Amino acid sequence: MAKHVIIGGGSGFIGQALTDALRARGDRVTWISRTEGHDRLTWDVLA
User: Could you list the residue range(s) of the whole structural domain that residue 30 is in?
Assistant: First the structure.
């Protein structure tokens, strides 16, 4: 069963590896980020 995972620091070394592994098993990944983009939430939206 696929999950939706939200992570901070997704573009970093470990975050990117985690993102790749999660997507490889079929999960959807959204990053919390300073910049807007596809599959990203900004910190301002969360505040």
Answer: 4-46
